[in-house]
Write a structure and sequence with these properties.
- By secondary structure, the chain is mainly α.
- It has 2 domains: about 15-215 and about 270-490, Up-down Bundle (Growth Hormone, Chain: A), CATH 1.20.1250.20; about 215-270.
- It contains 20 helices and 2 strands.
- Pfam families: MFS_1.
């Protein structure tokens, strides 16, 4: 194990960390940053349940309805790396506050939208400002909790909030849609933003990477266009993998990302220092995060469809029906947090995905006339236990050993992995679903529900397979002693080998 630290950056980051983390104040900082993460994550799912009502009121086409979801993830994932570097260079607190203001304004615009186009634009703007807010928040967490048990606890809380946010979004979306209006699924962000903005101004201490900081504009352009083309290509794949448009955008995205890697290996101040992702352990953590993002978005979306379309749950009941998974995460996370320093992250990252996969395989046994209590509830509890074991160590591991100068870029990569993984995974799972449904002859309502559950089951099996792959990745990439995988002393930039 070797250390690699930028002297000026480390000095600045260390000083900022000590200032921010003094006394009990840093735990209030954790509350503020966790609230930010909750807003960012739940906005990926809160509109899911509201989409039927929004489609009817605004006259959305099916394509526009899809883009209400995709626009957020696409803008978010494509701009996260640039947002991370802006946070590092311009100031993490300043970037965080600007992101909060913009996110709140975009949410208000979306809540007042009068057309499908306005709603899609608002969702895209939410993604743009989330790309500033999210990496700044995670970087602030990194320099606030630098090592030891407190860092493990802080990242466990942060990761648990991130994991539960998708389910919280579904519940909150159901409550707002049924008792208020679908527009409140966007407007609800405004009071959250105001609280986070005021608390952030009072509690958070500024930190940034000092020295010769230049923006890598060519890198920013190629990675944004590359990720955008890739996600768009996978989105178009829902209508056919062999179409010229699908192949063209996927090829363009791959080519631009290859060009991005070449640029990053040549420029003096790269947008994403390759040392952040080429580290074996950290690179493995990013890959696992991509799979986690794909599973959470894909599984929860098709579960929502099953609850509302097949089982006939109204919006509120559909949202509440997902709550057991969140409760299982909340119960399991403290246990996993206590186990983390004893057994290390590797065991949790190997076993957790396998447990979650069992839950999804169980969920794949759904039938049109099945019972929620028998076919769905046990699966959600098992899934929650497995995902909690993933959420607790993954954020910590993805940022372990990152020099303070690279904190924004690394946290942006962690967030981008979740968002891009979710976008790509949803497209793949949708293709699996469509293929399964196409094999069922529909002659009446009963056979239509059979087709739906056949498609949902296929999608759940696909997500289970993805989690098995995540477990294999943990075996291959997450290597080393538990002491080397998690910071326990005052080291600030340990590069794991």
């Amino acid at each position: 194990m070797s250390t690699h630290t930028s002297p000026s950056a480390s000095a600045t980051g260390s000083a900022a960390g000590s200032r921010t983390s003094s006394g009990s104040r840093r735990w209030w900082v954790l509350v503020v940053l966790a609230l930010t993460q909750l807003i960012v994550v739940l906005d990926g799912t809160i509109v899911n349940i509201a989409l039927p009502a929004a489609q009817q009121e605004l006259g959305l086409t099916d394509t526009q309805r899809q883009w209400v979801i995709t626009a957020y993830a696409l803008a978010f994932g494509a701009l996260l790396l640039l947002g991370g570097r802006i946070a590092d260079y311009w100031g993490r607190k300043r970037t965080y506050l600007v992101g909060m203001v913009g996110f709140g304004a975009a949410s208000a615009f979306g809540g007042l939208a009068q057309s499908g186009t306005e709603l899609i634009i608002a969702r895209g703007l939410q993604g743009v400002f989330a790309a500033l807010m999210a990496p700044a928040a995670l970087a602030l967490l990194t320099v606030t909790f630098t090592h030891g048990r407190d860092r493990n606890t802080a990242f466990a809380v942060f990761g648990t909030v991130a994991g539960a946010g998708a389910a919280v979004g579904l519940v909150l979306g159901g409550v707002l849609t049924e008792f208020a209006d679908w527009r409140w699924c966007l407007l609800v962000n405004v009071p959250f933003v105001l609280v986070g903005l005021v608390a952030g101004m009072i509690l958070v201490t500024e930190s940034k990477a000092e020295g010769d900081n230049k923006y890598d504009l060519w890198g920013a352009l190629t990675v944004a266009l590359g990720l955008g083309s890739l996600v768009y290509g996978f989105t178009r794949a829902e209508e056919g993998w062999g179409s010229a448009e699908t192949i063209g955008f996927l090829a363009l995205g791959a080519g631009l990302l290859a060009l991005f890697v070449f640029i990053e290996s040549r420029v003096a101040q790269p947008l994403l220092p390759l040392r952040v992702v080429t580290d074996r352990v950290r690179g493995g953590a990013f890959l696992i995060q991509m799979i986690v993002g794909s599973v959470m978005i894909g599984a929860m979306l098709y579960l929502t469809f099953h609850l509302q379309i097949v089982l006939g749950f109204p919006p509120l009941e559909a949202g509440l029906a997902t709550l057991p998974m969140t409760l299982a995460i909340m119960v399991t996370a403290p246990i996993a947090t206590k186990l983390l320093p004893k057994i290390g992250p590797r065991v949790l990252l190997i076993v957790g995905p396998l447990i979650a996969a069992v839950g999804l395989v169980y969920l794949s046994r759904i039938t049109p006339d099945g019972s929620y209590l028998v076919q769905v509830l046990p699966a959600l509890l098992i899934l929650g236990v497995g995902m909690a074991m993933l959420f607790v160590p993954i954020q910590n591991l993805a940022l372990s050993g990152v020099a303070p100068h690279d904190a924004g870029a690394a946290s942006a990569t962690a967030n981008a992995a979740m968002q891009i993984g979710g976008s790509i995974g949803l497209s793949v799972f949708t293709t699996v679903y469509a293929g399964a449904v196409a094999g069922v002859e529909v002659v009446d309502k009963a056979s239509q529900f059979t087709a739906f559950t056949t498609g949902y089951s296929a999608a759940f099996i696909a997500t289970a397979v993805a989690l098995v792959v995540a477990s294999i990745l943990a075996v291959v990439f997450i290597r080393g002693s538990k002491e080397s995988l998690l910071p326990t002393g005052d080291e600030k930039a340990v590069h794991l080998g």
